[in-house]
Specification:
It is a single chain. The chain is of the alpha+beta class and 80 residues long. It has one domain. Helix content is 26%, strand content 49%. It has 1 helix and 4 strands, in the order ββββα. It has a 4-stranded antiparallel beta sheet with strand order 1-2-3-4, with helices on one face. The chain is globular and about 50 Å long. The N and C termini lie far apart (36 Å).
Length: 80
């Protein structure tokens, strides 16, 4: 699994997120499965959580993960 760190900015606050990307090939087709980490991926207690499977491209999967985590953080920050 490839670990990817990205930074998203929500309401002027920077948040670091960790995504995991797995590449699988079937005959001539390649798909990517996307995971996210709730904390530091080097910590053995933090396990990857499946986000979505079946992406055709790496950039598409990473962008989906960034957008998903950004909307998740926004909804958490809006809670009273």
């Amino acid at each position: 699994m490839r670990k990817i760190k990205r930074r998203v900015i929500v309401k002027g606050v920077k948040h670091d997120i960790w995504l995991g990307l797995v590449k699988k090939g079937f005959n001539n087709a390649t798909i990517f499965n996307l995971y996210y980490y709730t904390g530091n991926p080097d910590d053995p207690d933090n396990k990857p959580v499946a986000l979505k499977n079946g992406f055709k491209g790496e950039k598409e999967a990473i962008q989906y993960g960034i957008d998903y985590m950004q909307s998740l953080i926004e909804s958490i920050m809006e809670r009273p």
